[in-house]
Amino acid sequence: MVKYFELDEVLHILVSVITISIAFAIAWTRSTTFDAEFLQTAGMILLTVGSGFVLHELAHKFTAIHYGAHARYQAWTLGLLLAVVMAFAVGFVFAAPGAVYIYGNHITREQNGKISIAGPLTNLALGFIFLLVGFALPAFASIASLGANVNFFLGAFNLLPFFPMDGQKVYSWNKLYWAALFVPMLILAFVQII
After folding, report:
1. For this structure, is 57 an active site residue?
2. d(CA 161, CA 106)
3. Rounded Cα–Cα distance for residues 54 and 32 (Å)
């Protein structure tokens, strides 16, 4: 039986998700106390940003495993610390909580491009799932709108064609695939649909 996760990797994912949820909640509420508004905002962020972040990284991991590589998520302590400090100091979060590292097996440029595009494609799918929830269940429209916008933004941001972003690897593999995903994601990231 293949073992996909080690306990320390699960802990890295949990610490990353909780930390970025707290950082975004601090930035959005400008609160330094864990009051009801803060906890509600943190919960909404955990559902929207957390799901977008975790599933994005897991898409990279499982695509790499599909190509025979060993892949694991590793939190970036400095990135997590910077997210919280910036949220407190300036009310803005630069979230670089960690990444999936790929080891072993020689990965071709095409495979690396496919591994890299898997994360933003996951954000695109999640964005549309949140939109569907918002239209089907109007009582959840505000959280669904947040989930859609966050996932479209995460996908577009990750597709920037600069190192170390996913977009750089996708762009160097196939410029047409990169543009076909980046342009719509960028538009969706800045259009309020719900």
Report:
1. yes
2. 23
3. 26
Burial grade of 20 (CB within 10 A; 0-12, 13-18, 19 or more): buried
Nearest-angstrom CA–CA distance, 20 and 103: 26
Whole-angstrom distance, CA of residue 19 vs CA of residue 118: 24
Q: What is the b/e burial string over 90-120, where b = at least 16 CB atoms within 10 angstroms of the residue's CB?
A: eeebebebbbbebeeeebeeebbbbbbbbbb
Query: Is 0.90 surpassed by the pTM of this model?
Result: no
Taking only Cα atoms into account, the Rg of the chain, rounded to an integer number of angstroms, comes to 17
Q: Please give the Cα distance from 64 to 111 (Å, whole number).
A: 8
Alpha carbon 38 to chain centroid, angstroms: 21
Amino acid (1-letter code) at residue 135: F
Span 10-63, pLDDT tens digits: 999 999 999 988 888 888 888 777 888 888 888 898 899 889 999 999 999 999
Choose, from 6, 9, 57, 110, the residue flagged as catalytic: 57
DSSP structural state of residue 106:
P
Instruction: Give the amino acid at 149.
Output: N
CA distance 68 to 115: 12
144/163 Cα distance (integer angstroms): 31
Query: Torsions phi, psi of 102, nearest 5?
Result: -110, 130
